[in-house]
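Dear support,

I submitted the protein below through the web form. The confirmation email said the job was done, but the results page showed an empty box. After a refresh the structure appeared. I'm attaching both so you can tell me whether what I see now is the final result or a partial one.
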Amino acid sequence: MKVILVSNSSNALSLFKEILRNSNLQSIVQVASISEAKQELRNERFDFVIIQTPAADEMGTRGAKEIAISTQVGVILLVKNAIYDQVLYQVGECGVFVVSMPSTKQVLYQSINFVIAHQKKVIQLENEIAKHKKKLQDEKVIMRAKLLLVEQYHWSEQKAHRFIEKQAMDHSRTKLQIARELLGSETNEVGKN
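What the results page shows now:
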């Protein structure tokens, strides 16, 4: 697990190393500003970002929202108790986890574990969506190939489907590969096979 810590405090790094010592922590990179955190995120992959407000270049809420929206990185925003409700209202819908400070090590540890679990679930769902999108795209290609066969040879959709399936089985290929070949060479004489 790799973490970016946005903090001007010299004690913050040791505190979070202590909190995360039992986790699968690879490294914590401490920076003073949101812009430095964004630069680190462009250069390397991190699991989450902890922002202790205020950051050197801004309060931290705008940067936390931007990071949460534009990356798959979990964001924890540490704010003073007096402004907790206001900040939560500003960033809560963006997926930023807000923790009021001062806080205990246990609350910080639980917050970090919650964000990690949440990020894993989000990534799992995004992977599932990507898999379904690919399957849908593949089905579109196969449907276009069936339509081509229906138009060229006046076959039924079932006959076109069976033809693509049989070609795939006979040539140890996928239906998608057969469909792409058919679409790539629309002039070949499919009906002769």
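Response: this is the final, complete result; the empty box was a page-load delay. Residues 97 and 117 are 12 Å apart (CA to CA).
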